């Protein structure tokens, strides 16, 4: 298995994977459970996000031969997805049906979290269903940790299993983020490491 920077040629596979994965996510997937096509909505949303992330951040893909195994999207300190991306995603709301009010409450809750200092941000990490339990998530996380080195980093864990993985890489919980989903997300960060000897 290798972890490499994604290219534009990887986008379709990456967003298909993200669409399937987040439709089943215990937090975000639960929010859109009443939508008629959660996989389609997430796929369209992540198409917007991943294309912008290729320009402003880092998108990694894990592969084995020609097989796609997973992806991670990191934003450098001080970099955020643009208003342009939000506006592109806005038409997707009409496809959420009765899930729209829950989605808006979720977005309101998750966008309130801001660290008062610069930090790398793991916006997305996803492992293809066929590759789970094979160390793909660890490899993707390790590639990000290697990239940001001694800098601070932040992420949210949507399951206890994910939180354990992040803790094993030096992240620790700051607290729970209450959303409309039944399972709270865990805000985690890894503090900057001093480079002084």
Short description:
The chain has 197 residues and is of the alpha+beta class. The chain is built from 7 helices and 7 strands. The chain has helices at 11-23, 28-31, 38-56, 83-89, 100-110, 136-148, 160-168, and strands at residues 2-5, 58-64, 67-75, 120-127, 153-157, 172-177, 185-190.
Structural features, described:
Strands 1-2-3-4-5-7-6 form a 7-stranded mixed beta sheet, sandwiched between helices. Helix content is 39%, strand content 23%. The chain is of the alpha+beta class and 197 residues long. The mean pLDDT is 89. The chain has 7 helices and 7 strands; from the N terminus they run βαααββααβαβαββ. The protein has helices at 11-23, 28-31, 38-56, 83-89, 100-110, 136-148, 160-168; strands at 2-5, 58-64, 67-75, 120-127, 153-157, 172-177, 185-190.
